[in-house]
Amino acid sequence: MDKRALIIGATGIVGRNLAEQLQTHGGWSIAGLSRGRTPAPHGVESITADLASASSVTQALQGREFSHVFFTAWSRQATEAENIRVNGAMVANVLAALGPSGALSHVALVTGLKHYLGPFEAYAKGSVPVTPFREEQGRQPVDNFYYEQEDRLFDAARQYGFGWSVHRPHTIIGFAVGNAMNMGVTLAVYATLCKASGEPFVFPGSAAQWNGLTDMTDARLLARHLEWAASSPEARDEAFNVVNGDVFRWKWMWERIAEYFGIEPASFDGQTRPLENRMQHASHAWAEIAARHSLAEHDIDKLVSWWHTDADLGRPMEVLTDMSKSRKAGFLDYQSTPDSFFDLFERLKRERIIPA
User: Fold this and answer.
1) What is the pLDDT of residues 248-289, one digit of tens each?
2) Could you give the CA distance from residue 197 to residue 356 in angstroms, rounded to a whole number?
3) I want to staple 304 with a disulfide (CB 3.0 to 4.6 A). Which of 172, 186, 256, 311 is the partner?
């Protein structure tokens, strides 16, 4: 198999772990396409372009050929209409630049469970499908940039003849710094702040999330899923949910995380207490912790995503995913979610992101 990969978003939580996965297996040449604000992972060639600009992308990719493209990033905009315009253009621009060469074999698109829940502007409004979510449940009758990205992918696949796969993870746990959707790092920073200040480790989310069943996606497992789909005939032209394979309740997981950091979890009284509201003045406290422990990043805003963690933990309904389609197609991988958190926390210590 020709193995020339272009990762859109190679410095993010999914793209970075995908690059590490492809490097582990060997045989891949890997490039990353981004605005160039963050250095590419070791061994990944950096290509710089404004993904929303067709001319910028065309110029950056002129004369380049790739067998596989992995879309692992999105650009957050103020409204869903802008999300649709910008993120749809990102997919269309890259594929218009690379498709005519005839070299493309497979293109993978990472979206998520907002495919079933709707975008942030219309989050869980209207008729939410019965859990666990299954791929055949289809689209919600609302505007959603995931649908626009899919449609641009499908159009290009028909025009240029490559295969595709769509991957729908739940909340992703994995190592990345400066990522807009990173619950694992956010909770690690929050727990560190609580330990330093003596403040209670308060669950910020809803009663539905505290008591209900849920699941998550390890970025390493998602990377393995992406590589599997890129080479498996059973995955060609299919959309898949992708989660770790275990389920839990936050009332149980919150205690495990608190125990890891050596802090006491606060009793949950049923009230939602968003982190974004309570952490507005945490930057000074974090800077002091970073200085005291010689940490690598003193700017808390480059580590946390209070808003996104609040959105995930504040959902008013059960969010649970079915993996039968992947299993039947041959992907039998599994990852313990507690181990996902603890592995991440250990790496954050090694990288001097949180105190050891």
Assistant:
1) 999 999 999 999 999 999 999 999 999 999 998 999 999 999
2) 17
3) 186
State the alpha helices, DSSP H only, in 99-215.
114-117, 145-160, 183-197, 207-211
32 in Cβ contact with 95 (< 8 Å) = no
**Lowest mean per-residue pLDDT among 34-48, 159-173, 193-207, 278-292:** 34-48
Q: Establish whether 125 is a catalytic residue.
A: no
CA angle 343, 72, 95 (to 5 degrees): 160
**Residue of 3, 116, 146, 190 with catalytic role:** 146
Q: CB–CB of 110/302 below 8 Å?
A: no
User: In the predicted model, what is the mean pLDDT of residues 24-48?
Assistant: 90
Distance CA(105)–CA(102), nearest Å, equals: 8
Q: Is the pLDDT of residue 124 over 60?
A: no
Cα–Cα distance for residue pair 106/110, rounded to 1 Å:
13
**At 168, which amino acid appears?**
R
Going from the C-alpha of 211 to that of each of 31, 39, 272, the distances in angstroms are 43, 40, 13
Ordered structural domains, the chain, with CATH:
3-169 (3.40.50.720), 179-215+247-317+336-351 (no CATH)
Q: pTM, whole model, 2 decimals?
A: 0.94
Question: How many CB atoms are closer than 10 A to CB 160?
Answer: 17
Three-state DSSP string of 294-331: CCCCCCHHHCCCHHHHHHHHCCCCCECECCHHHHHHCC
Considering 3, 114, 116, 190, which one is annotated as catalytic? 114
